[in-house]
Amino acid sequence: MTFHTPTGAYCAVENVDLAVDRGAFVSIIGHSGCGKTTVLNIVAGLLEATEGIVLLDGREVRGPGPDRAVVFQNHSLLPWLTVYENVRLAVDKVFRDRKTRAERHEWTLYNLELTHLAAAKDKRPSEISGGMKQRVGIARALAMEPKVLLMDEPFGALDALTRAHLQDSVMEIHARLGNTVLMITHDVDEAVLLSDAIVLMTNGPAATVGEVVPVDLARPRDRVALTAEARYHQLRGRVLEFLYRRQMRPAA
Ligand SMILES: Nc1ncnc2c1ncn2[C@@H]1O[C@H](COP(=O)(O)OP(=O)(O)OP(=O)(O)O)[C@@H](O)[C@H]1O
Questions:
Q1: For a surface tag, which of 29, 187, 211, 225 has the fewest beta carbons within 10 Å of its beta carbon?
Q2: Radius of gyration of the chain (CA)
Q3: 246 is in which domain, residue-wise?
């Protein structure tokens, strides 16, 4: 991906070759500015790669589509709509021709229950916490029944405890639905806890996939029990070594 800037062409990412298995939870980690969001936006179809393509189920991705739902860091909810209405809007858009009104209502409620939001369904975004807003974003994305869930630092703006709760919810939902997830994170512990594989990106310009670390820890995973597992610490160490020894943070 080359961006054309006032100071000339800037190659942000190059030769990103990545295969993600159906149902896998894959994290992308790398220093700030290395190109993680750029890669995610290309997969989402929000950005067109200068060269190269994205294949989903063997078909080329061209532009955004409901088969790839995105959860952003800043929950992008419509403030004048309730929690229910924010999710319902997406459900109506995707399922207008395939589900009846009653089915769309039930499906919206189901996704709110899945994300533990049923009790807050009539509240507006200004009346709920940051963690709950983020859950609405996740409910809305899941309700679209995407083949791939794309998450750009979904827990980045949350305090540590809320973050832990939400990570547990996401693990539970992933175990239940088995959807494919591509998630950007800055958090090594989060990446190891949630992922089946961690993609380590090198620094830009022309950032690329430096290494893919398979996370072979048994599921379901428990964050406290994992701290007693040698394999967990080995995997953490491998990611940390890549980030802080082999890819030093670029000068700001
Ligand atoms: N539209 C654009 N025009 C010009 N340069 C861009 C554009 N979008 C991104 N870049 C540059 O491409 C590089 C990668 O940006 P990107 O946002 O993908 O990084 P990132 O790894 O997601 O960063 P962070 O972790 O800080 O969110 C950066 O150097 C950025 O300045």
A1: 225
A2: 19
A3: 1-67+148-252
